Structure to design on (150 residues):
């Protein structure tokens, strides 16, 4: 089985504020970087969008294992600890009966998860992982680009 690794990160200058996201896709010896920004967003939205855009860039094929690496506990726990399933079963309400934030992005992520069945792995942010650090650099650069354009 072949493995495609997707490292992701989001950044926000102010929260809410100007945000950037980035994904780094690794497949064999191939490497692809993608990134973008939003002029008015939150850090959690950028973390989610990084994964969504990374997964959208995947061309599904038989016997492809997809691994998503993120430093966002919010994102990884939502998938791995079944928060997403619970939110759906509770009509998109949290355990304390509040509306789930970022429902639009969660719905998009669910579709991509159903198509690609990725495994989510939590990495420590701002540490010695060069791929996570590269995504952080790209996401921060996108926030700076967005500020210059506004």
């Amino acid at each position: 089985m072949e493995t495609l690794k997707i490292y992701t990160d989001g950044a926000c200058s102010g929260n809410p504020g100007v945000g950037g996201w980035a994904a780094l896709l690794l497949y064999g010896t191939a490497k692809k970087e993608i990134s973008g920004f939003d002029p008015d967003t939150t850090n959690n939205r950028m973390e989610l969008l990084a994964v969504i855009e990374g997964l959208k860039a995947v061309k599904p094929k038989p016997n492809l294992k997809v691994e998503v690496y993120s430093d966002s506990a919010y994102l990884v726990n939502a998938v791995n600890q079944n928060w997403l399933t619970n939110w759906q079963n509770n009509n998109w309400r949290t355990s304390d009966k509040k509306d789930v934030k970022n429902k639009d992005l969660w719905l998009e992520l669910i579709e991509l998860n159903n198509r690609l069945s990725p495994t989510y792995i939590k990495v420590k942010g701002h540490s010695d992982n060069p791929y996570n650090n590269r995504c952080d650099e790209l996401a921060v650069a996108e926030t700076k680009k967005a500020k210059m354009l506004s």
